[in-house]
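Protein record

Derive tokens from sequence
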Amino acid sequence: MTDRWGSKPIACMGGLVLDMDSLTQGTQFPGSARILQNMEPSTDSGYRRINGVIKYDDDEVPGDTDAPILGVKVALNGVFAARINDEGGGGEDNAIYFGSGSGWGAPLNATARPGPVTKVRFISYNLVEPVVIACDGVNPAWKTNGTVETEINGVGAPTNPKYAKEFLGRLALSGYGTGALLALSVPNDDEDFSGGGAIEINVGDTVKGLALFRGELIIFCERSIKKLTGTDSTTFVIVNVTDSIGCVSGDTIQEIGGDLIYLSTDGIRSYAATERIGDVELSLVSRSIQPLVRGILAEGFDEDHYASCCVRKKSQYRLFPNNENLPDADNLGVLGRLQDAPTTPHGQFEWATLRGLKPYSADSEYSGNLEVAVLGHTTNGFVYLQEAGNTFDGTNIEAIYRTPDLTFDDATIRKVFFKIDINTQTEGDIDVLVNLLLDKEQLHIIQPPSVQLMDTGSAPVYGSAVYDTDTYGAFVFPYFKRNLIGSGFFGAFRFYCNDDSSPFRIESFQVTFSIKGRR
């Protein structure tokens, strides 16, 4: 009897989906992923192995052995970093340093900033001139313009603020005292908290972070979210946005695509505007990875053990929980990419996991026309530059993309798998293993061996190619065709790379099979 042949094209899209049953996902969302580790949903379609990290500076930030980088900030054409330093015998100092890639020099703070500081949070803005503000929850707020430093400790100024934000030409400080207080300086003077127009407000809940949204100051609290409306001290009013959803850590708040993203008490949420004037939407954007997020929340990390940043050129939100009980290699983070249009079962975010990075602090900002994203390490004293290199500072990046268990439109028909055609993009040498996984990897099912995808170099770019160095005749978009062995009712594919290969992208693939009967 003549075999009936079938084929199924799969476009890699949808990101990590963990909240859906195998049959539905494998049938309706075949291009989504059950594992998407260190593979980012690409801006050019498909899934791409992420870039690595390298040391921002070959010198570590001075400080105590095993002390974390308490905070980092990209500003004033370099990076600010804070770290506890009392090894010199001069007493405890949560010192603040500045570097631009050639050493960190001496502390910028002339007066020691002592005490049990667990996080230093920086902001930058430009009222009269560009400045950087630091708050640590123990000492007064600190300011520098890159040359002159100032402790903001005048009459009326909070003595130990944790959070800061520039709002309507004022410096807003919060998280001090009972934790529910908010102070605003006089207009256009970020050091004066006692003059006309300065104000202090009790918001009624423990503040976890501050952010700006559509000209309003959003106050993220432990059990609620509030906003400050008005234009001056006579019209300022605290308005409740919600009394049922709080924020776990202000260090998870980022702006992406014009909306605010943050880790709430029940998942990753967005603070977004609606079409109704003055209204906002608090949507849960992490539905597709809720099992993963619930696991993170169940760990009960202290608010200081979170870090986050954006990679704006890729519309990415990166969240880094810091698990003290795990080594760097096993620490798990989350990456989400905002799509222009929904491609997932649950909205516009495609998700993936990050494994192998364990920062204590993070920041990203434009420095000139270049976006700089940095991480402050938990123990070794180094600041790392993201989106650079092919490894995690010399450690191989373990990248995995596993598809759902694909039904090929009918889970009751046995298929004999014949061939897979894979469309990719490479950026250099790659070595990727592909496995066909039969019938949900049940223990009694013998699994076929791996097949290998290798490519030696990407094509040179005209104008930058070097004679006798670049590889000519290489494919930027190599097309791999590999034979398959095995039969089953379900078939999943696992793409795996764990070396110092260049980034590569899996765009799509097509599976050819023959139909052998219905069970």
Observations:
- The helical segments are 22-28, 290-298.
- The mean pLDDT is 92.
- The first helix runs from residue 22 to 28.
